[in-house]
Amino acid sequence: MKLFECQNCGQPLYFENDRCMSCGLQLGYLPEEGQMSALEPEGNAWRPLAEPDRLYRYCTNAVHGTCNWLLPSDQEEALCRACRHNRTIPDLATAENLDRWQRLERAKHRLFYTLLALGLPLANRTDDPENGLAFDFLADPPQPQAARVLTGHDNGLVTINLAEADDAERERIRAAMGEPYRTLLGHFRHEVGHWFWDRLVAGWGWLDECRALFGDERADYGEALARHYAEGPPPDWQERFVSAYASAHPWEDFAETWSHYLHIVDTLETARAFGLRIQPRIGRGRELAARIDFDPNASVGAERLIDAWLPLTFAVNSLNRSMGQPDFYPFVLPPPVIEKLDFIDRLVHQPPA
To answer: End-to-end distance of the chain based on CA atoms, in angstroms?
Structure first.
């Protein structure tokens, strides 16, 4: 993600800010411009300092503290580009639900930042009632014997269990499943990967190459998952897959690789915005040197992305270990995975239909 600053006072801003802590002006995000802007009130609308020739208003979900995105004041839509994809939101009469939904929305808006920056097609259920991308944010039923809400994807509908927004519960699940990494943003990136497989691979002439790299998705999905949970991943999974779960089925391999591609692109954009250079002061430091001076959202190919990513992750993993924290990126990228990432990069940047 790029860095933002207040146009009024120059204060550095986070993507989630709705007020400048230095000068006090309201802030809002302009998704079409990819710009956070300080705002000046004008009647019932706001005039962004970053685009003063047009008036804007906040997404309706701003009243819940879940969104700081703006819409042109003359548009009929009540919700922003990201929030229009919500099909079900939790019962907000429960304070715990509101807090968890706010955390989910922060992650979801970061997802949409990257999807928009990459210029990917985004249809919601109003645009495409049958196949559009939509989200259900659901809480487990109160009855102890009732079935839990399962986080997952079904033909464009992504369901996220609100309990995932509880840090302690998410860590418990991560440890129980032996996962090295489990975050809200990771969930979003993985689950939309399934939707983009349907949107970008099937019917676009990429199916044969996708099957050659990830396997034949026509293998029975239910049987594959049952076998994975009963037997675990194959012994050599680290030589071919980005995660153990990716080995369960070709669809999961694609979704896991897709999510890692988004991890890499977004993090490298942040590193570029900070002007980071990696120059280790060791004998083989040249092999771990990197200058992140390119736009990772452009079509640069996986080789260039990985040439910057590996030194960056080694450096940040080392910093984390110095603080007694787990590795920032606890994954290994063997050549077959890099080849899959290159496929994702080419898929993302294919010419529009």
So the answer is: 27
Averaged pLDDT, 250-271? 97
Query: 323 and 216 in one domain?
Result: yes
Residue 226 lies in a domain: yes
DSSP assignment, residue 200? I
In terms of domains, do 175 and 297 share one? no
Domains in the chain, number: 3
DSSP 8-state symbol, 352: P
Do 106 and 146 sit in the same domain of this protein?
yes
Domain boundary among 44, 79, 114: 79
**8 A C-beta contact, residue 27 and residue 56:** no
Tens digit of each residue's pLDDT (9 = 90 or more) over 323-336:
999 999 999 999 99
What is the residue whose two structure tokens read 């809200």?
184
Pairing, β 35-42 against β 45-48: antiparallel
Q: Report yes or no on whether pTM surpasses 0.85.
A: yes
Based on the domain organization, do 286 and 349 belong to the same domain?
yes
pLDDT band at 141 (very low <50, low <70, confident <90, very high): confident
- Residues 56-94: tens digit of each pLDDT: 999 999 999 999 999 999 999 999 999 999 999 999 988
Give helix then strand counts, H and E, for the chain: 8, 13
Mark whether 246 and 329 lie in a shared domain: yes
Nearest 5°: phi and psi at 59? -55, 145
Domain around 178:
81-188
Structure tokens given for 46: 């706001």
